[in-house]
Amino acid sequence: MGVQRVALVAVLAVVGGVGVLLPYVAADMPTELEVEYLHEGKECGNPSKNGDTIFVRYTGRMHPDLGGAMFDSTNNRKPVKIVLGAGRVIRGWELGLLNMCPGGRRRITVPPTYGYDPGTHADVPEGSTVVFEMELVHIDDEDFWSKVKPGMWICFTAMVGCSIWYRIWKNTKEAAVKQQYKRVQ
C-alpha cells in the first residue's frame, strides 16, 4: 500500500473571537485502493464480475483524517443499480465490488486516483480520499440459466405443438382441396 505524506497545512481557527492560523498535519493518506472485508455474505456460485448488473447500498464518508463527514448514503433510498465494468461509477467501486456475493459488506477506501473526477460531486472536494461502506444486495443474473430453462421448455413445447398442429391442418386442408378438385374433373 502506497502512502502519500501531506505536509504542514495552515488552518484558520477562531479563538476568542480572533482569527488565528494554527498548524495542522494531515495524517498519511492512502494512494492505493484499500478493500476491507466486513462480511462475506451468503455463499454463491457466481460472485460479482464485470458485466453483471448489481444492486448495492452504501454510505460515503470523507476519510477519517479529513473529518469523516458523511456526504452520501442510500439508507433512506432504494439500492443503486450498477453494471460492473461499464465505467458509469468511480473506478474504486468498479474494482472494490468485484468477486462479492449477495449480503457481502466491504469498506472501500478510495484515493483520488480511483475516485471522483474534479467537479463531479459537489460534496467531495477535489483530490479527497473517501471511504464507502458497501453492501451487495443482489446480482441480477446470479443464476440466469436455472431461471430461464423452465420457461424455455414451455416455449419449446408450445412451438413443437404449434408446428405439429399446423402440419396436420395443412395436410388435411390439402387433402380436402385435392378431393374437391377430383370431383370437379
TrEMBL record:
- Keyword Ligase listed? The answer is no
Instruction: Tell me the keywords, alphabetical order.
Output: Isomerase, Membrane, Rotamase, Transmembrane, Transmembrane helix
Keyword Flavoprotein: yes or no?
Answer: no
The reaction(s) annotated as catalysed by this protein in its Swiss-Prot or TrEMBL entry are: [protein]-peptidylproline (omega=180) = [protein]-peptidylproline (omega=0)
Q: Which GO terms describe its molecular function?
A: peptidyl-prolyl cis-trans isomerase activity
What Pfam families has UniProt attached to this entry? FKBP_C (PF00254)
Q: Which residues form the PPIase FKBP-type domain?
A: 51-140
What's the domain of life for this entry?
Eukaryota
Under Enzyme Commission nomenclature, its number is 5.2.1.8
Entry's transmembrane regions: 7-27, 151-169
Q: What is this protein called?
A: peptidylprolyl isomerase
Q: To which species is this protein native?
A: Meganyctiphanes norvegica
